[in-house]
Amino acid sequence: MPSFTAPDGAVLAFDDYGRGEPPVVLVHGWQGTAETWGPLAGRLAERHRVVAVDLRGAGGSAGAPGPYSVERFAADVAGLAEHLGLERFVLAGHSMGGTVAQRLAVDHPGLLAALVLVAPVPASGLPLSPRVEAVFREVPLNPETARMWLGMLTATPLPADRYAILVRAAASVAPETALEAFDSWQRSAFEAEARSIDVPTLVLAGAKDRPQTPDFLQRTVVEVIAGARMTVVEDTGHFLHLERDGEVAALIEAFLASLTPD
C-alpha cells in the first residue's frame, strides 16, 4: 500500500485505484481496515477514482501514534485528500467511519461533494446498555470474542473469504488503540455542529442491523443533517456493503448520478 506522512509525522497507509469523477474516499469502521471495503471499492472503481484509508492504529497504519479519536481521524482524512490533491470528493464512511465523515463535513465543508453514511454511528454517539458496552470492550481483548462478535454483525453468514477480511482487520488493531477509539466514537457529542452539514447525504441502513436500526438512524442522522435521505437495504445487518456489495454500489451510483453539478 502507498502511504503519506500526516502533519504530526505519522505515516498512514491507503489504497488508491480506479479513475473517474467524482473521486470517492472510503473510511472504515471500528476494528476495520481499508480491506473491509474491498468488494464494494472494486465495483465503485469501475467508474471512479477510489481512495480507501487505513486509519491510524489499523492495518498498514497500525504503527502510527495516537490520539485515536474521531477528531484526529477526520483530520488525517483531510490531510490525505490534500496529499492527493483532491479538491472536492465524495466521502463514504461505515459505522465509526460514518462519525468520522460527519466530523470532517463539519470541520472542512468545502472539501466535500457529498456524503455516504453506511450504518453510521451518529454525531451524538451510540447509547449502549452496560451489558452491551461490556461486550464491545471485551472484543479487542479476546480474539475468540472478536470472531464471535463479527459473526453476529451480518444478517446471514458471510462467505469464508469475506469473514476472513473482518477477522484480519480486527486482529491488526492493538487493544489499547481500539479501546481509545471506542471511547471517542461511542461518546461523540457534536450533534449541534452536525446540523450545519449542508452537502447531499445518503444514509444506507441494514434492515436487520442492531443497534443502528433504520428507525434509530432516521432520528439521529437523517433528521439531523438537512436534506439527508435514507435507503434501507433488506436482509442485511451492519456490514451491508459486504453482504450486498452489488446492491449497495448501485445505490451509491444512483445517488451520485442524481447530484446536480455546480
The number of E-state strands comes to 8
Total number of distinct structural domains: 1
Q: Enumerate the spans where pLDDT stays under 50 for 5 or more consecutive residues.
A: none
In the CATH scheme, what's the topology name?
A: Rossmann fold
Morphology call = globular
Distance between the termini: 33 Å
Helix proportion: 40-55%
Calculate the mean pLDDT score and round it: 97
Q: Indicate the structural class.
A: alpha/beta
Over the alpha carbons, how many angstroms does the gyration radius reach? 17 Å
Order of helices and strands: EEEHEHEHEHHHHHEHEHH
Which CATH class is shown? Answer: Alpha Beta
CATH superfamily: Alpha/Beta hydrolase fold, catalytic domain
Q: What amount of the residues lies in strands?
A: 15-25%
Give your account of this protein's structure.
The chain has one domain: 3-Layer(aba) Sandwich (Rossmann fold), CATH 3.40.50.1820. It has helices at 38-44, 70-84, 96-107, 130-138, 143-151, 160-171, 175-186, 191-194, 214-222, 240-243, 245-258; strands at residues 3-5, 11-17, 24-27, 50-53, 89-94, 112-118, 201-206, 229-233. The chain has an eight-stranded mixed β-sheet, sandwiched between helices. The model has no long low-confidence stretch (mean pLDDT 97). The protein is globular. Helix 9 (214-222) links the parallel strand 7 (201-206) and strand 8. The protein is built from eleven helices and eight strands. It has 262 residues and is α/β, with parallel strands linked by helices. The protein is 41% helix and 16% strand. 48% of the residues are buried. The N and C termini lie far apart (33 Å).
